[in-house]
Design brief:
The structure is a single chain. The protein has about 400 residues and is mainly alpha-helical. It has three domains: about 5-90, no CATH class; about 100-145 and about 290-355, no CATH class; about 145-290 and about 365-404, no CATH class. Helix content is about 60%, strand content about 10%. It has a three-stranded mixed beta sheet with strand order 3-5-4, with helices on one face. Strands 1-7 form a two-stranded antiparallel sheet. Strand 4 (about 190-195) and strand 5 form a beta hairpin. Helix 1 crosses helix 2 and helix 3 (about 45-60) packs antiparallel against helix 4. The protein is globular, with a radius of gyration of 21 Å.
Length: about 400
């Protein structure tokens, strides 16, 4: 029997961490015997996990069969794993250090002038005498539709996005994703990657489906977002090249930042601004929504998405400055125009071990990938490389012409 390789040990370590932190492994589609052995064995101590991680570090460095890029990928993933083990052992880091060690990027305070400018634009897009927050909520509420109305629109979006993705980047011939509606979940939508180039994507009916955001959400979860990335890397890196480390998707690691960055830029990767506007207006029409809102939807989206980074500051307030909950919620209400219920939901999300720092994968991942695509001479070629190669945040940062 051949000795397990360093990538095999990496997979085993991830599966064992999941015993301590359920959900840490987002998807596993490698040999089922390995999964069964980690589930039936005694739960390892955290000291034992750290010993395994230390041993893996040495074996990675000594494995001459791995090329430098593959070694770099695994070393950065392993650094994040060891950080997770440290946190589980009751030795937390400051939130800035935690994000750096888990995802390879540094969170910074976002200048509030960004939010003020977004408010000014939203005031122009949604004129009126009532408070801006009420006008924004009104616009969002007018865009809400039932799952029954949304389902056929989502189906048409999936078909459109799959065609554009296949043309621009190629897709494995056997890939497939299906859509379902569920209840009682903490997220808007989720991609459950099943292996063999298949995904099951769920939309939460308990969260209002807002048409202004639907094309972005569908692209994020399907094509050329999570499903396309996972299917391509599974097919190319695991099935064809036998890279065991790509038989598993882990949370709280640099690969998560890359995946969320790809997904947050997914729609713009396959459609121009004019095409996105036409697509979104068509969705409004298909849903029977008001034309006045449809024609100004892109101006709304541009401004409103700038408020995503309010969450970055809220996490710093909560974990770096140790501000009271009431202050964190009030900050979101003032700058992100969220209500108190939204604020409480964010606090619950940020207190979950898997998600307290994960919020940065969306904003910083979007920034990193967005900067890379903006600077690329051939945007489609650059995005295709992201889908096909396991690039790390440090590699992408080196490609940028100026610091991010």
């Amino acid at each position: 029997m051949s000795k397990p390789s360093a990538p095999d040990h990496y997979v085993r370590l991830a599966l064992l961490i999941d015993r301590w932190l359920p959900g840490y492994v987002d998807a596993y589609y490698g040999p089922q015997a390995l999964l069964a052995s980690t589930k039936t064995a005694d739960k390892p101590s955290l000291d034992a996990l750290e010993d395994l991680a230390r041993s893996l570090h040495h074996s990675l460095s000594a494995d001459s069969s791995l090329n430098p890029d593959r070694q770099a990928y695994l070393h950065q993933q392993l650094r994040a794993m060891r950080t997770t083990i440290r946190i589980l052992a009751g030795n937390p880091l400051d939130i800035v250090d935690e994000v750096e060690c888990l995802y390879g990027v540094t969170p910074k305070w976002v200048d509030e002038s960004v939010f003020a400018q977004a408010h000014q634009t939203l005031n122009e897009v949604l004129p009126g005498s009532s408070p801006l927050g009420e006008r924004v909520l009104g616009f969002r509420e007018r865009s809400r539709v039932s799952a029954e109305v949304a389902a056929p629109i989502i189906g048409r979006l999936v078909d459109y996005l799959r065609g554009r993705t296949s043309t621009l980047f190629g897709l494995p011939p056997q890939e497939h994703c299906d859509i379902a509606f569920v209840r009682d979940k903490p997220w808007i939508a989720y991609n459950w990657y099943l292996g063999e180039c298949r995904s099951h994507i769920e939309f939460n009916q308990d969260v209002p489906i807002e048409m202004w955001n639907l094309p972005y959400t569908v692209a994020h979860e399907t094509y050329p977002g999570h499903h396309a990335e996972y299917a391509i890397k599974d097919h190319r890196l695991y099935s064809q090249e036998g890279r065991a480390e790509h038989s598993i998707v882990v949370s709280n690691a640099p690969s998560s930042l890359i995946s969320e960055g790809i997904a947050k830029n997914a729609l713009e990767a396959v459609a121009t601004e004019e095409e996105i506007a036409a697509l979104t207006i068509q969705c409004y029409e298909d849903a029977g929504l008001g034309k006045d809102d449809a024609v100004r939807v892109m101006e709304f989206i541009k401004a409103y998405r700038c408020l995503d980074k309010v969450t970055d500051n809220q996490v710093l307030l909560l974990y770096h400055d140790h501000a009271p909950d009431s202050e964190v919620i009030a900050y979101g209400m003032r700058h992100a125009l969220m209500d108190e219920e939204d604020g409480n939901h964010l606090l619950r999300f940020c207190r979950e071990p898997l998600s307290r720092s994960y919020t940065y994968t969306y904003t910083l991942g979007q920034d990193l990938i967005g900067r890379l695509l903006a600077e690329a001479g051939d945007k489609a070629k650059a995005f295709r490389r992201l889908l096909y190669e396991p690039l790390t945040p440090s590699q992408l940062l080196e490609l940028l012409t100026s610091p991010i």
